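# step 3/5: fold
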Amino acid sequence: MDLRRRNRRIGFALTALFGGILVGCGDDDPVNPPPPPPAANILSGTITSSMTLDAANSPYLIQGTTIIEDGATLTIPAGTELHGDVDFTGSALIVRQGGRLVAQGTATDPIVFTSSRAPGQRTRGDWGGVVLNGRSNCNFPASECVGEGNSGPYGGTDVNDDSGVMSYVRIEYAGFEVSFGNELNGLTLNGVGAGTQLDHIQSHFGSDDGIEFFGGTVDLKFAIVTGASDDSFDYSTGWQGRGQFWLVQHDPDDADNGFEIDGNEENFDATPLTDPVIYNVTLVGKESGTGSAGESPRGIIFRRGTAGTVYNVVVLGFEKGIDIDQTETVGRVEIRNSYFFGQQDVTFEGDDDGIDESAIVMNAAWGNVTGVDPALTDPFNLAAPDFRPTAGSPLLAGFASPPSDGFFDQVSYIGAVDPDGTPWYEGWITLDRN
């Protein structure tokens, strides 16, 4: 990817147009036809001062590259819909360094970023997605910490930088290729700091990665990626945050890796290393005998000198389960207390770099298991999946307990979903394919 791209800025306009209402004055007055519905409010250009949207006036149309500038906060109340306008190429919402997005939905009233096309006509790549740029880690030189998709500079030394709040947010039918290798994702997190709150986020049916981290120290909890055509979760460039309860379900006919994990693509020893700590993940690829060849190629790929530890993972139904590339990666990255089952080719990819993934991943100290069905309830159902372990599931033993640090929830199971009670994703996500 080319990390030396410039961004363009355009003016900001917010308009609300309402049709008039004619009222008759007597019994003989003609019946007036109803007024046309109000035109959608429009977000475009550069937002330079703080503003709050009105859920009652949604949907808002995001027209073109819409930028929240340094010093400005855009507040979006629960229940608001924002539509990326398909008549404007690559419409996207981009938060610059120093800007903030406060999008705080609820389980009953999520905030929805979606396509401006009518339901039933929406498709991947209809619009660009959401980008946050912060002042936290980036392991490229400062001049090269520039976001894909013309999204602007990021990175710095403020590990607690605050880019706002995203909670109970859906991002649908996004992802846009500006040029080859230069793409917007559903949600892109560039150098985002730990002062930012991210939880209960769905990236759905995007044309590139579902959620991608480039550096930063932000934490992410309760995140689900469904139907991404590229990687579901992708992190690199020195990200050092925490994650818990991450869930993936692939489109069996169009998907890449469940996790794609990198350090620095040019210098595998660049610091800060990509070095997160993640607990409780479920990655669902494609059921045996279904899907297209070459899709869902790997559950996880660790490469380019990445570090980090991932615990309590279920890798289910990919062509290959796990791949570790480059000798710099060996000894830095760990995956523990995890299950690999139902891969259509092999569990351990193997290649010509002399790395024996089986010996690394299956050392006794890491507590991993292969060839044992994790017994999830109905994980491959595209319309109404259930990712909970069944009563007899082996996932109810052998788990790793997270640290008690105020972020991680204590668990008694492997995978992203508690076997008991209502799943955390129920009620606010979508599984509509268009």
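# step 4/5: annotate
The chain has one domain: 41-396.
# step 5/5: archive (pending)
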